[in-house]
Amino acid sequence: MIERLLIKNQLSFKECDIQFSHGLNVFSGPSGAGKSVLMQGLLALFGYGEAMADVIECEIDGLLGLEEFGFEEETPNIFKFFKAKSSRYFINGSSVSKKGMMEVSRTFVNYLSMKDNAEFENNRLLGLLDGVCASKEPRHIQEVTSFSEAYGVYKVLKDEFDTIVLQEKKLEELKDFARYEIAKIDEVSPKIGEDEALLSFKKSLSKKEKLELALKNASAIFSMESSVHEVLSLTEVESSFFDECMNELRALFERENEKLEALEEIDVDAMLERIEKIAGLKRRYGSIEEALSQRKMRQEELAKYENMAFEKTKLEKVLKEKEALINASALAISQRRKISLPLLQDKINSYLQQLYMPNISLHVKEIEMFELGFDALHVELGKVDLKKVSSGEYNRIRLAFIATHNEFLQSTGGILILDEIDANLSGKESMSVANVLKVLSKKYQIFAISHQPQLSSKADLHFLVTKDTLQESRVHLLGEKERILELARMVSGENVSDEAMQFAKSLLESSDL
C-alpha cells in the first residue's frame, strides 16, 4: 500500500505531499485542475510514461517480493525518481533503470487506462480458470504445477530426441567427415616436439657443406701442435693450458664429424616431405598439440555417432512413457477446466451485468501441448471483437475479470490505478463501476480520477485537486461537509443547487450503508 506520495515541480504542481489509506482513493476537481498531471506523476514513478517532475517519491508498506529482483525489503519501501542532469530511479536507495523499475512495479501495480491485452493472454486466463477449479478441487493447482514440471523434463528430452533425428539425417556425412579428419592426422602421426627436432636437422643440413670445409681447413692446427710445444718449452712456459685447449678442439671436431656422418645417412627428401606434412597440419590446426586434440575430439564424435542409434531407441522409449503420463495428466486437467468453465463464465457475467455490459462466452479449444496443458481459453463478447470495443467498455470488461480473479484466487491485491474509468458513463453505469471498485478495494488500494459523483461518494479518501490564482495546482483531502459540496458541484456545476446538495448527501449516506 502506498502510504505517502511526494511530488516536486511536476508541471502545475510546485509541491504536493499526500498521505493515503487502504481502500479507494478518489481524485476529483474541475477540468484542467491537474488531476491527470498528478496521476501521471504517480504512474511515471513506476515506469509508465515519462517523468516530468524534479522529484517523485512514495513510501510503500508491505512485502513486495523485492529480493527476487535483487533489492532488500525495508519498512516502508522507498521508491524514488530524481532528475538533475539526468533522470534516475531508486528502490530503497539502490539505483535501477526505468525498465527495471517497471518490471518490479508490475508485480503489484495494475494500471487500467489504455487497452492492454495482458488480461486476456491465455496463460493468465487459464490461471483464472484453474483458480475456479481449485475452489472445487483443492489439489488442482498442485496437479497443474506437477504437470508443468513434468512437461519441462519431457520438453528437454523431446528437444534432445529431435536433435538426434535431425543429426541422423546427416549421420553418414558426419561420420565421413570425422573419419576424414582422423585419417588426415593419422597419415602424419605427429609426435609432440617433432616439428622442432626436424627443423633443427633441416638447419644442420643447410650448413653441412660449409661445416665440412671449415673442419677440413681448421684441422691443419693439429699439424702445428708439436711446433707450439717446442716454443713453449724453449720459453719455459707451462704447456698444460695449451694441451687442454687442443683436447677440447679434438673432442669438438669428433662430435661435429659424427653429426656430419649421421646426416649422410638421412633420407633428405623424406625428411623434407615430413616437415611439409607437419607444417600442413599446423596450418590447419595451429599446432601439433591442437591437431592431436582435434583427433581425440573427432574420435569421441565418431563413437557418439556410432552409439546414436542405440541412444535414439532408448530415448524414444523413455519419451513414449513420459508422453503417455503427461497426456493423461493434461487430459484430467482439461476435463476439470471444462467442468468449471460455466462457473467462471457465470461469475464474470454477474460482474458484467452489474456493470451494464453484455455477457461474454468462454470456450476451451485444444492446441499444441505446452507447460499448462493443451487448452486455450477464448473470450467472446457476442459478435463483437474485443479489439473493437471502446476503451470504457474494454476496461469494464477487464474490471469484471479482475474482480473474478480477486474472488477465486484470494489475491492479496496490490495497487490498482484507474484513469477516469467512469468517463462518459450514465449515472447507473457509474454507480455500478463504483460498487465493483468498492468490493475490490477490500484487497486492492485503488487510485481513481473521477468526474462522476457516484464513484467519488464511495471513496475511503476523497481528494480535491484545484488551481489557485497563480495557476498552481494543489491537492486537498476533503472532510465530510467539503465532500458534500464537491459531490454537489459534480452534479450541478459551479452554481450548486439545493437539489444537488440533497442528492450529494443521499449518495454519501447510501455509501455508508
How would you portray this structure in words?
Helix content is 57%, strand content 17%. It has 16 helices and 14 strands. A hairpin with a 2-residue loop joins strand 9 and strand 10. The two termini are 25 Å apart.
CATH fourth-tier homologous superfamily of the domain at 1-108 and 413-478:
P-loop containing nucleotide triphosphate hydrolases
| Strand segment tally | 14
Structural class, judged by helices and strands? Answer: alpha/beta
The order of strands across the largest sheet is 2-1-4-5-6-7
Straight-line N-to-C gap: 25 Å
Whole-angstrom Rg? 44 Å
Q: What's the architecture of the domain at 1-108 and 413-478, going by CATH?
A: 3-Layer(aba) Sandwich
Uncertain segments are: none
Order of helices and strands: EEEHEEEEHEHHHHHHHHHEEHEHEHEEHH
Shape: elongated
Strand content: 15-25%
The top-level CATH class of the domain at 1-108 and 413-478 is: Alpha Beta
Q: Which descriptors would you attach to this protein?
A:
57% helix; 17% strand; six-stranded antiparallel beta sheet; alpha/beta
Write a compact overview of the structure shown:
This protein is of the alpha/beta class and 513 residues long. The chain has 16 helices and 14 strands.
Task: Give the helix/strand layout.
Elements: E1 2-10, E2 13-19, E3 24-28, H1 35-45, E4 55-60, E5 77-83, E6 87-91, E7 94-96, H2 98-105, E8 109-112, H3 122-136, H4 140-169, H5 171-188, H6 194-206, H7 208-218, H8 225-234, H9 240-265, H10 268-285, H11 288-354, E9 361-370, E10 373-380, H12 391-408, E11 414-418, H13 427-440, E12 444-449, H14 453-457, E13 461-467, E14 473-477, H15 480-492, H16 498-511
Parallel strand pairs: 3-12, 3-13, 8-11, 11-12
Antiparallel strand pairs: 1-2, 1-4, 4-5, 5-6, 6-7, 9-10, 13-14
Helix pairs in contact: 3-11, 4-11, 5-11, 6-10, 7-9, 10-11, 11-12, 12-13, 15-16
